[in-house]
Every structure is written in C-alpha cells, then in structure tokens.
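Posting for a labmate who doesn't have an account.
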Amino acid sequence: MKGLRLPAVPGVELVAAARAFSDSGRWVTNDDIHALRYGPNWRSTMVERGLDPNHPQKKGFNRRHWTATPQSARTESEENSADLMLRACNQALSNARMSAQDIDVFIAVSTTSPRYTSSLGTLVGGRMGFRGPAFEMKSGCSGAIYAMSIAYQFLASGARTILIAAAETLSRVVSIESPLLYAAGDGAGALILQRVEDSGRGLLGGYLSSDGSFADSMGVPGILPPTREALDRGMYFMGQSDSIAGDVEPFWFEGQQTVMEFAELGFADLDMYIPHQTSGAMLDKLAHSMGHQRHKLFRCLDRYGNCGSATLPIAISEAMESGLKTGSLVLLNAVGGGLAWGSLMLRV
C-alpha cells in the first residue's frame, strides 16, 4: 500500500453546501429507462428476454436526473456541466450569505466539461463574478475528495475562504445499450470551506492514492481530438471492464481504514459516514464493515443515481439539510476512475 497521508488542518468550517439540477432536464425513473431501451411494450419484451424489470431497483437505483436523453440530438436549451456548476455555486453562496468577492480560491471538478481546453474554473468563475485563483481538476468519482484535500492545504497556507464545485452530465457520455445507463445521473454540488477560530473543527486526517494500471478499466476510452473511426465505434461513451467492481473493492476499505487509524478514530466515534454512491452492493458492503454502526452510513443513491464527481457534494448538501449538525464527525470516502481513491475525516 502506497499513498499520501494528509495531516490535520484545524480551524476550518464547512460553511455551506448546495446541489443543483438542470431546469431543462427531467427526473427519470427505472421504468422510463426500460421504455427507452426496450420500447413502449418494454415489460413484455423484458419478460421474453428473461430480464427482471426490478433488477435496477434491487441494485439501489430508483431515479436520477438527466439533462438530456442519452444519444439524442443536442438542443439549444440543453444545459451542460458548466451551467449546473454555476447554479450550485450561486446557491452555496446564497446559503452562506456571501458573494463571489468573498471567495479566495475556486476549484472546479468535472469529467464532463463542455470545453476542450479552457478551465471550468475560469469559465464558471467568470460567470459568477469571481476574480482570483481558479482552476479545474479531474480525478473521476473521487474528484471532490482530491479537491477538498487541495482546499485544506490552501487554507493552511493562508487562504480564508474556498469554493469547491463539481458537476457532471453523464447522460451525454452513456449509451442506451450500456449497463451503466441505470446508474448515470446528472447534477452539481458546491461546498464552501472557511477558516475559523474554533481549532476543534476542520480536517482531522486524510488519505489519497491511485493505481494507473486500471486506467483503461473504467471511463470513456476515446482519445482527443475525436476521430471518425472512434466515433463510429462508440468509443466516446462510458464503459467499464467486467471485473472492475471486484478490482476496486479493496481500495474502498484501504481508504476508510487508513484514515481512521491515522486519526485514531473508529466507527463508534463517527456521526456520519458519507461514501461515494456507486452501487447498492458496494454501499451494503461498507455498511457491513461498520458492524453495529451501520445506521450511520448515508445513502442517496436511490434519489440521484451515481453523479460521478458531483455525488459527494450533492450528498453532503442533503445531509446538512437533513440534520448533520455543526461539530459532527464525518468520514468521506470515494473510489473513481483512473483509478484514484481517497478518504477524509472531518469535524464539520
């Protein structure tokens, strides 16, 4: 095991969180996807093929938001990841009673940026009136963990207030035939971290690692710039190897165990455990590892699906609205394409 252990950064408050979804999109049920894949008579078609219509729900998926129907023609009103990110940022600033001028650093996270080269950090930052250091980073579904880790280092170095936002429009990179269709969700989440006098709050410890030998096991295989041959072969849709779920499982437990040992804390000390929402099966395994503390595991997979890097900020936003209190001890954990993974222990 080789990874980076992050030291504590005391005196940091999670001031606000927000989530956002497309006004031009829609909430999509499993039945909606059945109809998309198998036609209006999907129920009889699935039965004829020996398929269980309840299988997605058994895997933890119930609904998700899509900005657009996969593989459909783009419309002028269709929103992209930058639009969703801007909405989440503005809502987080409103929740914190701040303006863009109160932010020292802006970190944008996405795997589905609408721009080929320019940064979502500057694009979205400019739209909300921000002037200052801004950049975009990409680390698959663990992107928010990596962004928060960087933010804590900025705060330890003198920055006072940092805005982190993640947004994904996965409906645009998943094919109708893909087994990932039921999992993919679109959305954005934003977090604001700020220095405070209370030294008991902040980052208690963290852990980051990666293994590039799995780089081709998950994600969009097509390279940039696109080629006609690759487009015709469907190489700009998400895919994953058949063995990837089992391959990545040890990294989930490596992250949570390492950060708890480093922080000298256990599941009994936690108020809430918020993992990336990848599948019901993985959430069940994480809950099982918690023993009698499994009720502390936060789940929102059934409401939003897997929104990639935006999943954790979205989950944190909902958790704060549903009772996550100031001073709570929270464990964050994620594994994403690349592969890259990480865990953070926070006193919010």
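Reply:
Got it, the structure tokens are right above this. The chain is about 30% helix and 25% strand.
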